[in-house]
Amino acid sequence: MSNDTATPFTRAGLNDCWNKIGVHGDGSCPELERHVHCRNCPVYSASAAKLLDAELPAGHLAEWTGHFAAAPRVEEAGTRSVVIFRIGAEWLALPATVFDEVATLRAVHTLPHRRGGVVLGLANVRGTLLVCVSLGEVLGLEMTAVPGRGNEQAGHRRLLVISREGSRLVFPADEIHGIHRCQPRELKEVPATVAKATATYTKAVLAWRGRTVGCLDDQLLFYTLNRSLS
Q1: Is 14 helix (H, G, I), strand (E, B) or coil?
Q2: What whole-number percentage of the chain has pLDDT above 90?
Q3: Would you say 201 and 220 are in contact if contact means Cβ atoms under 8 Å apart?
Q4: SS3 176
Q5: DSSP state of 133
Q6: For residue 165, what is the DSSP state?
Q7: Out of 2.40.50.140, 1.10.760.10, 2.40.50.180, 3.30.300.20, which CATH number does the structure's domain 80-229 have?
C-alpha cells in the first residue's frame, strides 16, 4: 500500500466522521447514544453511497494490485479475538465467542429479596428478559470515578449480552472498545499486585494502548455467575 494516510472518504471529499468522533474516533458524537454504532447512522450510509459513485483516485488500481499481490500475513497459532471493555477503572477482556450483543443502557428491574450482590435484576433486551449481573461485584472492583473522565462518559455505558453453554446473561459496562485480536506472546502472567478477587478470574494480562487489560477466565466466571442465580 502507498504511504498516503488519507482515507478513501477524505480523497473523495467526504466527511468520515466515524473515524473522528465516532466508534473509530474519540466517541464524542452525540448520535451514538441513539444509533449505538456508526454503521446504523444515516450519515454513514449516505457517505458510503457517495463513495461508490465517486471517481476512482489516481493510482487506485496500482495501489490495490500491489496490496493483493503481497504475501498474506501469517498469524501465530493460537491467535484469539477478545472483546475489551471497562468496568470502573479496570479494563477487562473476554473471548469474543461469548458475546451475543451490545445493547444501549436501559432500566434494570430489581427482583424481590435480591437487592444488591451479584444479581442486579432483569433487563429487557429485544423483548427478552435477561438476568443482569454485576461483574464488578464478582471481581471485587471498586466503582470509582476514572481520572480525567467526566459525566459525558455516561454516554459510553452499554449492556453486554454474553452466553455460554446455554446460559445467557447481561452485564453493564462503563465503556466498550470492541474486538481486539491478540497473539499468545502478547499475553503475560497475572502480576502479584492484582487484587485477589480479580486475580482469581484473570488468566493473563494484555498490554493495550498503554493500559493493562485483564483477560478473564470465561468458564470460571460463568460458573460463579450461574451459582449466584440459584
Answers
A1: coil
A2: 38
A3: yes
A4: strand
A5: E
A6: T
A7: 2.40.50.180
